[in-house]
Amino acid sequence: MEIKSIQEKLASKNIDGYLLIDYESKNKVLVSLLGEKMLTRKIIAFIPKEGKGTLIVHFIDTVYLKD
Fold this sequence. Notes:
Blueprint: H1 3-12, E1 17-22, H2 28-34, E2 43-48, E3 54-57
Antiparallel strand pairs: 1-2, 2-3
């Protein structure tokens, strides 16, 4: 799943955004967007219907998300 397709679905249903929360790779949508990463803390992602999203992650895990 790609962010663009999520944004298209949000726009078609007039939904402002999609909030995803993951811990221990349990959220398959977020895992598919970021790839399999060895994260040690919770991660939060917000995908708006337009524009760039926001990723909130603990400092310890930033080294795994540089790419």
